[in-house]
Amino acid sequence: MVVDISLGQAKLDWARNHMPIHKALARRFEGARPFAGLTVAVSSHLEAKTGVLIETLAKAGGQVVFTASVAATAQHDVAAALNTQPGIEGFIATEADAATQSSLRDKVIARQPNLVIDDGAEIALQLVRRPSEIPNGFIGVCEQTTSGVQRLRALDRLGQLKFPVLAVNDSYMKREFDNVHGTGESVLTNLLLVTNRLLAGRCLVVAGFGYCGEGIAQRAKAWGARVSVTEVDPRKAVRAHVQGFDVVPMREAVSDADFILTATGMPDVLRREHFLEMADGAVLGNVGHFSNEINLDDLRDLAIDQRDVRPGIREYKLHNGHCINVVADAELVNLASPVAMGHPIEIMDITMAMLFLSALYMVEHRQSIRAAVHAVPEEVDHQVAEIELSALGVVIDGLTAKQRGYSSS
Ligand code: NAI
């Protein structure tokens, strides 16, 4: 593969120029260097906004070692550009198989990181499976996404977590903006770019009305789509209903759908019984962290023929003559398709700042945080919100002394 380092550098420059929170963090911490003497591992979607977080950690004194959390979303030009910078070293590969990805994470762990910024808990899981490899002086893990937090909470319940974790995904400033607005906007823009299809007037089904699903459904409705929602949680189903969405079982939803997006964090949301009922030409995309939301084994098994019909779209022809199109082999539709750039930069400025300041919080409180999954303290959320408001030039009111007294009485 030919890698254009200058293109990677240009992508980093463009992202950095639209990340005012990171500019403020770099200014604030370049002198103090709070990560000096520490190695920080970053395992995330390896693209330009993650690259800017890596740069900011290095500017704040950290020795940064990175790898890609999902091979299909890694941008090799960005990785190559990062690798030219002092204090930064990364390992990524074009092979997406589990053994290669695990060996890259081994290389990261061999650098003895003090902190891990994880996406999907991949490095954390490797440390849980092989506790003898937990580095000396290990401080803990900041987890970026819903599926990663779910894995780590399960390990915590089983008593298998040997280090502290901050559930950065669950913080207000991360989940309310990244999962809702970032996913809503980037999934639709990338889906339409990769298909070159019209959304207005078409039927779009969203599986899962959580943070991501709600963001997608709201935007798709605003763009003129007829939107249906599938759910398994009755509370979320009511929430979707009162927002005006049709709530239906997947078996019913698929027969009329032009586009079906899975955003559940669960395997097999689309499976054999659904493929058999789908309309001819249906386009399927996965939003969740793991590609197993769409059971491609079932689809391959049912297919009498398959071919690439456009870059990033594979068509499966079934016995009934219907063709089903899958975007990016069911990897994250907004990050893995050939034209995908992930969330808007301004949203990831907030997410990456939450990860940076959560990591800093762990460093500053390393003596007192016990091994468990913890919420990110509200003070971190507030700090990021305040820097964002100041970058936007937005001024807000404060409580009067009387109001403060009232709220604490
Ligand atoms: P969430 O927990 O808020 O929402 C998931 C929803 O799916 C829940 O309401 C749940 O009841 C529902 N659900 C579970 N099983 C279902 C099934 N079989 N059928 C229909 N609904 C079902 O989680 P969130 O934050 O919305 O994240 C969803 C997934 O997206 C996770 O894997 C997360 O890691 C990933 N994610 C992806 C992003 C991207 O850029 N593509 C960004 C942020 C999160």
Write a structural description:
- The protein has 409 residues and is α/β, with parallel strands linked by helices.
- The protein has two domains: 5-170 and 343-392, Rossmann fold, CATH 3.40.50; 183-330, NAD(P)-binding Rossmann-like Domain (Rossmann fold, 3-Layer(aba) Sandwich), CATH 3.40.50.720.
- The chain is built from 17 helices and 15 strands.
- It has helices at 5-17, 20-29, 48-59, 76-83, 98-110, 122-129, 146-157, 172-195, 211-222, 234-242, 250-253, 272-275, 296-302, 333-336, 345-364, 378-392, 401-408; strands at 39-44, 63-68, 88-91, 115-118, 140-143, 165-167, 203-207, 226-230, 246-247, 259-262, 283-286, 303-310, 313-318, 323-327, 373-374.
- Strands 9-8-7-10-11-14-13-12 form an eight-stranded mixed β-sheet.
- Strand 2 (63-68), helix 4 and strand 3 (88-91) form a beta-alpha-beta unit.
- Helix 1 crosses helix 4.
- The longest helix is centred in the middle third of the chain and has 24 residues, at 172-195.
- The radius of gyration is 22 Å and the shape is globular.
- The mean pLDDT is 97.
- The site of 1,4-dihydronicotinamide adenine dinucleotide has 29 residues, from helix 7, helix 8, helix 9 and helix 14.
- 1,4-dihydronicotinamide adenine dinucleotide binds at residues 145-147, 178-179, 183, 207-213, 230-233, 236, 263-266, 269, 287-289, 332, 334-335.
Radius of gyration: 22 Å
Q: How many DSSP E strands? A: 15
Query: What is CATH's topology name of the largest domain?
Result: Rossmann fold
Distance between the termini: 65 Å
Number of helices: 17
Mind telling me which CATH architecture of the largest domain this is? 3-Layer(aba) Sandwich
Biggest sheet: strands side by side, in what order?
9-8-7-10-11-14-13-12
Under CATH at level 1, the class of the largest domain stands as Alpha Beta
Low-confidence stretches: none
Bound molecules: 1,4-dihydronicotinamide adenine dinucleotide
Structural class: alpha/beta
Q: Strand-residue fraction? A: 15-25%
Mean pLDDT: 97
Largest β-sheet summary: 8 strands, mixed
Task: Tell me, briefly, the overall form.
Answer: globular
Number of domain units: 2
Helical residues, percent: 40-55%
State the fourth-level CATH superfamily of the largest domain: Adenosylhomocysteinase-like
